[in-house]
Amino acid sequence: MAAKKLDAIIFGATGFTGKYTVLEAVSVLKGLSWGIAGRNQEKLQSVLKEMSAKSKTDLSQTPIIIADVNNEASLLEMAQRCRIVVNTAGPYRFFGENVVKACIESGTHHVDVSGEPQYMESIQLKYNDLARERGVYVISACGFDSIPADLGVVFVEKNFDGVVNSVENFVHFGVKGGTKGTGSASLNTGTWESAIHAIANRSESIAIRRKLFPDRLPKFHPELKPRAPLSIANEVGKVILPFPEPDLPVVMRSQRYLYENEKKRPIQMQAYMLYPSRWVAGVVVFLAAVIGILAKFSLGRQLLLKYPSFFSGGMASRDGPSEERMERTFFRMTMKATGWPKSQKLVESSTPLSKTLTVQITGPNPAYGSACVALLSTAKTILNESDKMPSTGGVLPPGAAFSKTSLISELEKHEHGIKYEIVANK
């Protein structure tokens, strides 16, 4: 007799992100049937034991599925065991495509926390039509990259009461009470490795985007021009630098989808990281330049991956962040939207911008708390609200996929969830 089909399977559960996804699943997936998957039975059992203790919940009867990214038969068997695969096994550049293929073949939905533009866009290029034919949703960037930003733009537009021309997003990371006693690392090396490969292969995105989007979006007026690096943003009183990928390309993929399929005027966006001083921002620029140069060469990448703590200024380590640091880490996004109070032409408007809306998006532990809650919430939303999602399936960015669902409300329910609120409306 075949085993009963589960609602969800968390794949890659023994990884750093994976095990904290298991922890958050106790509350987020409550009422649903779920299991965990990976290569090693003993390690999977160890994760269940550890997360049982942390959550004060008996997880010993949680189904365990053995699956390996290099064994397509095992991936297919895993995908056939559930309605949706929650994939935490990165870097997705190397390990993601086989899982997506197995899910599409099995008619199983797929979500992941990839922040790798090349992977996301190549998957859309290769598999969007097939996913739609099979009625499967494949949605990446469902963690901190890029649920806060992409759904933030959706939230802005729903509350703007007019037409949004552009959004500027100011991103702040902090540690409550300071970093003393918490350890300096804020990232696990798996996240660091994904970032290094994304930087090294950034040029691939240009070729992929040309194939994926042969027609350019129309130009809009007034154009939102990027602010000067190291300038001070008066809205938040901090020094700014451009926020690194992938938020901007993910948001623009959502805006393109809504423009092409719903004839909605796309929203322009720029995103910035906040720093307390030009000195601190200057050090970040220097480190980023070193990493960018080294990442272009094989030997340089080897050094970056071998010594993550040194090259990241202590931000990444093989052990990942301490429990104390994760509990005290938070993020805050301040989104300022500008536009018009009444409907304008789809492409252009000569009417001066006369309306603003400022929104704040906050959450704890962005890399391994809010991200895991967001990932599981997207899976739950697909299972419960597919009738509110576009088409019959496809490879979609989050904003396009979930714009008409209650995902934002779901995110706000949980202790480590994400909050969206209006702070100014002029």
From TrEMBL:
Q: What are the BP-aspect GO terms?
A: glycolipid biosynthetic process
Q: Which GO terms describe its cellular component?
A: lipid droplet; mitochondrion; plasma membrane
Any one Pfam family here would be Sacchrp_dh_NADP
> Is the keyword Transmembrane helix assigned to this protein?
yes
Which stretches are transmembrane? 279-299
User: What Gene3D superfamilies does this protein map onto?
Assistant: NAD(P)-binding Rossmann-like Domain
* Residues annotated as domain Saccharopine dehydrogenase NADP binding: 9-139
Database matches in InterPro entries = NAD(P)-bd_dom_sf, Saccharopine_DH-like_oxidrdct, Sacchrp_dh_NADP-bd
Keywords carried by this UniProt record: Membrane, Transmembrane, Transmembrane helix
Query: What protein family is recorded?
Result: Belongs to the saccharopine dehydrogenase family.
PANTHER family per record: SACCHAROPINE DEHYDROGENASE-LIKE OXIDOREDUCTASE
Q: What is this protein called?
A: Saccharopine dehydrogenase-like oxidoreductase
